[in-house]
Each structure stands twice: as structure tokens, then as C-alpha cells.
Amino acid sequence: MFDMSLPWWEFIARGLVIYLALLVLVRLSGKRTVGQFTPFDLVVVLLLSEAVSNGLSGGDDSVSGGLIAAGTLIALNFTLGWLSAHFDQFEQLVEGREVLLGRNGVLYEQVLRRERVSPADVHKVLRENDCRLQQMRCAFLEADGTISIIKQ
User: At 129, is the pLDDT very low, low, confident or very high (cuts 50, 70, 90)?
Assistant: First the structure.
């Protein structure tokens, strides 16, 4: 139960590699993917966890190995959060920045396509903010995947 089949440091190394790889993959997948999960996105996240579980544990089923791996992931998450809170450039690298989707009633089609945001998504947020397209001063895709509207 507590006997590990791998050295303790290998759990830390595996946790570090998998955490950083998943962080990069999720970051590359785009803001909307992170900000608003569809049922498909949820299935992908669940499958990702299953896909990396053996890589994380290295086939070790011990309680000690699991605790080391879990502790490593929590420590990495805490460290990245601390770094993001203290260094703006690091935060921008990890979390991204807002993107201007439109201004003065005009949506930027190229930006919408690049960020994988449909005009229907923007129109939905406009309705939620009781704002017509002509009344929109700015529309932003925030770093967390939400859309913000500033009225004129």
C-alpha cells in the first residue's frame, strides 16, 4: 500500500512535465474553450485526465506515490498562481490578455475567426447587456473566455 515501485523524485518529475504540457495545450486551445465548456469540452477534459493518469503515476498504485503526485500538482498550481500575481508578464504568458472583438458597432470578423468566437456569441452577450450592436462602444474577449461589452 505504501511501497512505491518508482523513486519519489520521479513522481515529482512526472507531475511537473504533465502539468506544464497540459497547461500549454489548454492555453493553445483558445480562450473560449477554457471560459465556456460545452458538453464536448467536458468530455475532452475527462478523457485528458484519464489519458495522463498512467503517465503521472508511472503505473505505481501506492498511496505514497499518489500523494506525492497530488502534492506536486498542488504545489505547481500554487507556484504559478503566485508568479502570476506578482509578475504581469508571467500572468500574460500563462493566462493571456483581453482581445478587442469590435468597436463602435462594428465586429471585427477576422478577430472573431482567429479567436473562434461566433458573431452569435457576441449578439447573445449584447442581448444580456440590453445593448444593440449600434450602441456597443467596445466588445472584448476577456482572458478567462467571457465576453465584455461597453456601451456608448
Answer: very high
Burial class (CB in 10 A: 0-12, 13-18, 19+), 101: buried
The residues, ordered by sequence, that sit 6+ positions from 50 with a Cβ below 8 Å of its Cβ are: none
Tens-place pLDDT, residues 49-79: 777 887 877 888 788 888 888 889 889 889 9
Element of type H or E holding 99: strand 99-103
147 close to 139: Cβ distance less than 8 angstroms: yes
What grid cell was written down for 138? 467596445
Q: Within 87-138, where are the H helices?
A: 88-95, 109-114, 119-128
Residue 145, C-alpha cell as written in the block: 473566455
